[in-house]
Structure prediction request, 636 residues.
Amino acid sequence: MLVRDPVVQAIVTGSGARTVQLSGAWDIRALESRARALQTRLRDEARGGEAQWDLSQVDRLDHIGAMLVWRTWGRCRPVRLQLKREHEIFFGACEQSTGIAASPAKRFDPLSLVVAVGQGAWAATGHALEILQLFGQLLIDAVAVTRQPLLRPWREFSAGVYRIGAQALGITALVGFLIGVVLSYLSAEQLRLVGADVFIVNILGVGILRELGPVVCSILVAGRSGSALTAQLGVMRVTEELDALSVMGISNTLRLILPKVAAIAVALPLLVLWTSGIALVGGAVSANVELGMSFLQFFAGLPAAVPAVNLWLGVGKGVVFGVLIALIACHFGLRIQPNTESLAAGTTRSVVTSITAVIVADAILAVVFSDVGWS
Amino acid sequence: MNAEPVVQVKSLWTVFGDLVVHRDLDLSVMPGEVVSLVGGSGSGKTTLLRQMLGLERPRRGSIRVFGVPLHSCDPNLFKKIRKRWGVLFQHGALYSALSVFDNIALPLRELHGFEEDFIRDIVMLKLDAVGIEHRHASTMPSELSGGMIKRVALARALVLEPELVFLDEPTAGLDPDRSEAFVKLVRDLHVKLSFTVVMATHDLDTLVSVSDRVAVLADQKVVVCGPLSEVVHHDHPFIRSFFLGERGLRALSAAPTLQTS
Prediction:
């Protein structure tokens, strides 16, 4: 059967009575591209006053077509209407559908900013308290684990160290090396002006071992492993795996979170050492090229210029940052609701919060240890 | 009415690694009928359904939907065909980031041909059709019960007035009351709108109450395809255990048109 396009025709008979005749296919396939034009045409016809509506020539009709016509009738049946029997049901559906009042428009509330700030502060306090609570629970679990060696989740721990530490060696080395090169190059330019070339060892040694190594490495791990941790816990919530663990009497914190936190706390300081070392190599290469300083001179001068306590400070920061990242990632992972939106929001929040927390903690540690480690 | 089948599967092979799921399988679905695919777990019901939807590609054989070979046709034509069918996934597959209203409105909005308040009227019409109250329009899918998710998903599947509807386990996960109501809803809508239905199910009550024909998947092919009364008399171990077990007989006895003595 040939499908004809939807057509609206107005026929005026001799006696002045007007008939609006619809013919062709009035289904979604035909209306998809023509709905707007036909709607205006129909409105014009409807506005022309009382008329007879003849729909008996319509070949195909569906809810879309019926609704289009129905709306132009002002949501009620015209007095004089010719309709195919099999098309009756579509208008029946339109008739029963009551429509809905438009949702009230949101009014601007001048206090909304204050409310938002207050709610934000309240939420942040809540998060901080919950993270503290999680930390406390982990300490309790850790004590339980030391008492009962059988409980120790070694497998999860070693898998965590491998994933968080070993698999990140490549990317941290690349980033560390480049930062060393750039920092060294920029410092060399300035030092050469005042003829203080040898101080490049001091600048790079303190800067990288104490600050840049731990911070850069932690940011990379927060982005890489923190997000993975949050997403993993989130998906386990969505698939009810967390609930399955709970009902078996297996503690979520002991089995899932403790090994992850411990793994990051072990892997991150090691990664910090690795990143700092590579960054120093990068710095030495750049110093060699820019200032003609030999590698031997660079690394031999290092112990004298940078007291060993700086190295320990860097490693300690690695432990602190690692625990922070893991706690924040797990906290946000456990709070994810079973839907995609929440998963995305939770992962984003986890990464942003842990990077911010790392930098804030770094600033606090810098103040606390401001008298330590200068030669 | 032309008698060309809506869905035609010809000598289809599906192979996963060493496992042959479908071996030279044939099936055709005529316009306006309700065909149920039944089979044990792992018999490839869902796989076959996904292949009919073009989500998976069979190893060999052809699938024609509306007379068009799915796996070798022009992408634009395929896109048009996809607008002519509606799919109800097993778990509803509602977009969890969108409200009930937006879930149903999405396919209409994607057409870019209708005004927003027209779309609103259509969505409300569809909500009425599946028996969801308008006040639930703004809720998120995560706040809905299992039965309501299925209803909303059905409304979304029907919003583009499809000629062909695929139902994957339409009553799985619903309690008997809900599942009976849902089956009744599907049956009523089918009578009213006369679309073609292809349904994968292993729920006997669903099968008995809506199917025009039943296709039994076993031994990697369709062993028998016909009206329920014919199928139950076919001699095959799966059919014996499925239909003529205790559960099966109980469901069949509820079917008014059937004598299974």
